[in-house]
Amino acid sequence: MPTNDIPTRQNESRQLERLAASRYLYLRAKFWLGLSLVLAVPIAAGLAVLVMKVAGAKPYAAIWSIFVTFINFFVFERWQKENMSLAASVQEKMDCDLFGIDWRSTRPEPTPEDVVDASERFKKRSLEPLKDWYPPALGEVPLSVARVICQRANCTWEKRVRDRYANALLIMCGALAVVVAFLGCAALKTFDDVILVLVTPLVPALFMTLRLGAEHREAARSSERLARHADALFKEVISGTADERRLAGRSRDLQDEIFERRRMAPPVFDWVYTLLRSSNETQMNRAAAELVEQAKAALRTGT
Predict the structure, then answer these.
(1) Looking at per-residue confidence, does 61 or 164 come out higher?
(2) How far, in Å, CA of 83 to CA of 24, rounded?
């Protein structure tokens, strides 16, 4: 049975450099998102407390709310999306190389300077967590099978992480709304005071957490849909009924969807990935090993 070299090539210096570059670019996107949240949540909460004690601070709280909304929308989100787009392109370059699929000619490629600059900045950290990005067991099956398993792993990993993160954000949003309501009833006398003192400063925080929760939920649903597509493609691959060109074309179509999700979905903070990494890696490696065994059995019997 023919095999592939994804497990060894993914640990070559060129691929690790691309992966390091994409990680650094994602980190920059997370920085801008984090700064937006800091401006919207703790500082706004502090202003709300200040306004409760200093009546003359009400106009400043309203001005801060407007300022945060505008700077997030017109500045931070744009910088975040620019970094996300470039990071997705660099990671796409690595995947295309490993999976043996063509780069979309209509899509601008990341420049060597982009990759080198970002990877050098990331190399202040350890590269060890980047090694064996895809399960080593993939080397036991043909490339057409291995790349679909890799694509499926990308989708299922993202679904698990984003589902849990979306739940946490929506719970946080609900808790913030409850706190606002409680403080409004306990400390403020009129409806106008509730709006000016509590709601106005905290509108950006409520809006951001609610929107992020919804966007992560949508990204999780998209990843789930792509995982089902990968499952169907996996069955077609091991059936032996399609030629390599058709399989590569369908993998290319699936990769387009993965690229768009990486480019457009909001970033997930590193501490979330770190918290979930051990269980996710275990599930990914076990699932990959199971699929490898299924593929080997089917290809041996020709069914």
Answers:
(1) 164
(2) 9
